Structures are given as structure tokens and as C-alpha cells.
Amino acid sequence: MKARVKWVQDRTFLGESGSGHSMVMDGDPAGGGRDLGIRPMEALLLGMGGCTAYDVVEILEKSREAVEDCVIELDAERAEDIPKVFTKIIVRYIVSGRNLDPGKVERAVKLSAETYCSATIMLGKTAEVTHEIEIIDTAKE
Q1: Do 20 and 48 fall within a single domain?
Q2: Residue 99: left if φ>0, alpha if ψ -120 to 50, beta else—which one?
Q3: What is the rounded CA–CA span in Å between residue 75 and residue 129?
Q4: Per the omega criterion (within 30 degrees of 0), is the bond before 102 cis?
């Protein structure tokens, strides 16, 4: 996997992935940025959310569950001192589908957190990562 980050100006950078996708990253105006893009640490947190969401949906589909939606909400705290690593991350899974088996949803989250999601496992080296699950049964709507 490759990536490239190019300085644009001030505290604005253009990140380019090896797969050809780009995103603008910028800093807070108080730190010299112009608020033109996502903060690098926000991108890291979003990467974790995307990684675990991917796993959970894939595992549920392979388990033949009728998953229709998966939303990941992340709430993170960072250290006060440099390096300001993540120290606590709460990952909330909101999984919707028809008659989902709660045990299978819990299993999918556990497999992602402990085996498949590289981002969660890496960030878990510095942060306490906890998980919350909400299941929405769309068959009852």
C-alpha cells in the first residue's frame, strides 16, 4: 500500500492514495490552518470507522443476515500532551436490517475488533477501545 501527501500551502495538504483517490487535509486556524479540509487525526478516526464497518457488513452478509444499513459513530479522546495520541475511543454500531440475529451482530463486531480491523487493533495499542451496539429491526417498521 502506498500513499503520498503534498504540502499545498499554510497547513493545507493533499493526500493521495495508491488507488488514486485524494483528500484535502488542513489544520485548525488557531494552528495556522485555514479549515479547508479534514484534520489528519479525524481522517485516522474515520479510517478506523470505515475499516470496522466494512468488516461488520461483510461478516453479516456472509452469515446470510438481512443487513440493510450500518452506521459507525466514534467518540475519541486524545492525550493532553504531545504526542496527542488517542487514549479512549467509543465505537457505536447502529446496524439495521430485517430480523437480525443479535448474537450474529455481536459476533461480527467482536471479530472485527479482535481479528480483522487492522485500524482498530493498531489504535487499541494506545487507546482504550469500547464498543456499543444498537440493532434496528426494519421488519417492525
Answers
A1: no
A2: left
A3: 10
A4: no
47 and 76 housed in the same domain: yes
Comparing CA positions, the residue from 46, 49, 67 lying closest to residue 57 is 67
DSSP state letter for 115: I
Report if pTM > 0.85.
yes
Per 3-state DSSP, the chain is made up of helix, strand and coil in percentages (nearest 5) of 35, 40, 25
Q: Which of 36, 35, 41, 67 has the alpha carbon at shortest distance from 54?
A: 67
Residue 14: CATH number of its domain: 2.20.25.10
pLDDT digits (tens, 9 = 90+) for 81-138: 999 999 999 999 999 999 999 999 999 999 999 999 999 999 999 999 999 999 999 9
Pair (34, 60) in one structural domain: no
Helix or strand or coil: residue 80? coil
Please give the order of strands across the beta sheet that includes 66-78.
Answer: 66-78, 86-98, 128-137
In the chain, where do the E strands start and end?
A: 3-9, 12-17, 22-25, 66-78, 86-98, 128-137
